Amino acid sequence: MEKTTMDQDILKILYTEEEIARRIREMGAQMYEDLKGKDPLFVSVLRGAFIFMADITRACPVKCDVEFIAVSSYGNTTSSSGAVQITHDIQQDISGRDLVVVEDILDSGNTLSFLKQYFLTKGAASVSICTLLDKPSRREKAIHADYVGFEVPDEFVVGYGLDYAQKYRNLPYIGVLKPEVYSGKE
Ligand code: IMP
Ligand code: MG
Fold first, then answer.
1. CATH architecture of 7-74+86-183
2. Ligand 1 atom with minimal separation from the 109 CA
3. Tens digit of pLDDT for each residue in 144-162?
4. Is 134 near ligand 1, meaning CB less than 6 Å away?
5. Residue 110 CA, closest ligand 1 atom number
6. ω into residue 47 within 30 of 0, thus cis?
7. Which residue has the higher pLDDT, 183 or 121?
8. Nearest ligand, CA of residue 75?
9. Ligand 1: which residue has its CA nearest to atom 16?
């Protein structure tokens, strides 16, 4: 296919559409082994995890329900501000439920350590974390993901749900953005 204007902003592709699909099938099978017989509630962190949520829930054929929570911490820069705010909350009582939080990327850990604590305070029986990407080199909070798709180097990545300034989420692959796309804007 012809290179789109989005493709032209990408320095290199880290994971192709096929590699992502293969890894998600493996993760889903592993999660199914852990979750079968339970009644889990998958909670997707908007907006970055919206595409991963659709794929991982179908790769893990357990009877479950889904919820969405939206948080903001970023603004239009490439590093976290640290403060996490809930901008859209889940709609049901989660007391006694086994939650699986589905996230696009675990970076500083601020978002997921906040959310894990938040859900436990609201009475969840357990909170496990499923993240497509893990960037351990940037961790500020001690937080462990139960399911990780890929460990990524300390580079700003976009695609497959991940954005820069709300764009590139609909790229089917995950790639590193050319630094000139965001330089001067931080
Ligand atoms: P944390 O709170 O620093 O762990 O960051 C979590 C959120 O930051 C993720 O849900 C993403 O939305 C965003 N984020 C972190 N690293 C990247 C990246 O490389 N590309 C795009 N978004 C990122
Ligand atoms: Mg996100």
1. 3-Layer(aba) Sandwich (3.40)
2. 4
3. 999 999 999 999 999 999 9
4. no
5. 2
6. yes
7. 121
8. 1
9. 107
